[in-house]
Design brief:
- By secondary structure, this protein is an alpha/beta fold.
- It has a single domain, classed as HUPs (Rossmann fold), CATH 3.40.50.
- Helices cover 46% and strands 18% of the residues.
- It has six helices and five strands, in the order βαβαβαβαβαα.
- Strands 3-2-1-4-5 form a five-stranded parallel sheet, with helices on both faces.
- It is globular and about 50 Å long.
- It starts with a strand and ends with a helix.
- The relative contact order is 0.18.
- The chain binds adenosine-5'-diphosphate (ADP).
- Adenosine-5'-diphosphate (ADP) binds next to helix 1 and strand 4.
C-alpha cells in the first residue's frame, strides 16, 4: 500500500488544493493531507479550523484520504506515517525554485523521500490561499476560488476583522 503526504498551510483550502488531492487519490492508495503548523506565517484560520474545513470538503472522497496536522520536519512526519512520498502542486515557474529547493533539502535529510509534482490545472493556476484571503478580507467574491462552505467561513472572518477594525 502506498501512502503519500500532501503537506501545506491550507490557510484556507482552495479549489487548486482540492484538485491536487482528487488527482492524488487516483495515484496512491492513501493520501494524508498534512496541515503544517507554522505560526510565523500569521495564519487567518487556526489549525483545528483548517483541519475541520478540509475534512468536511474531503468526506466525499472516503477513507483513503486522511487529514492530520504536524509541526517540525516533514521527513519526521513521513517516517511516523510510514510514507516516503510527498505530493506538491506546481502552478507556475515561480513555484519551481522554492519547490525544487524544498524537495532537495528533504532528500538530503532522508534519501528515501520522493517528491511528486502535479501541475495545476490552468483554471486553478492563479489561485493561492493568500490571494483568496486578500480578496475576501476586502469584501470580494471568492466563489470561484474555494468550496462554498470555505467561502462562508472567509466571509465570517472578514466580518469579524471588519468589526474589530471599526472598534479600534
Ligand atoms: P505552503 O505554505 O506549504 O506552500 P500552500 O497551502 O500554499 O502551503 O500550498 C500547498 C501545496 O499546494 C503547494 O505544493 C502548492 O504549490 C500547492 N498549491 C497551492 N495552490 C494551488 C493551486 N491553485 N493549484 C495547484 N496546487 C496548488
Amino acid at each position: 500500500m502506498t501512502t503519500a503526504v500532501f503537506p501545506g498551510s491550507f490557510d484556507p483550502l482552495t479549489n487548486g488544493h482540492v484538485d491536487i488531492i482528487e488527482r492524488s487519490v487516483r495515484l496512491f492508495d492513501r493520501v494524508i493531507v498534512a496541515v503544517v503548523s507554522n505560526p510565523e506565517k500569521n495564519p487567518l484560520f487556526s489549525i483545528p479550523e483548517r483541519e475541520a474545513m478540509i475534512r468536511s470538503e474531503l468526506k466525499r472522497l472516503g477513507k483513503r484520504v486522511e487529514v492530520r496536522s504536524f509541526s517540525g520536519l516533514l521527513v519526521e512526519f513521513l517516517k511516523q506515517t510510514r510514507s516516503s512520498i510527498v505530493i506538491r502542486g506546481l502552478r507556475a515557474i515561480s513555484d519551481y525554485d522554492y519547490e525544487t529547493q524544498m524537495a532537495l533539502v528533504n532528500k538530503s535529510l532522508w534519501d528515501q523521500v520522493e517528491t511528486v509534482f502535479l501541475v495545476a490545472r490552468e483554471e486553478n493556476s492563479y489561485i493561492s490561499s493568500s490571494l483568496v484571503k486578500q480578496v475576501a478580507l476586502y469584501g470580494g467574491d471568492v466563489a470561484s476560488f474555494v468550496p462554498p462552505h470555505i467561502g462562508k467561513a472567509l466571509r465570517k472572518k472578514a466580518k469579524e476583522r471588519g468589526g474589530r477594525r471599526k472598534q479600534s
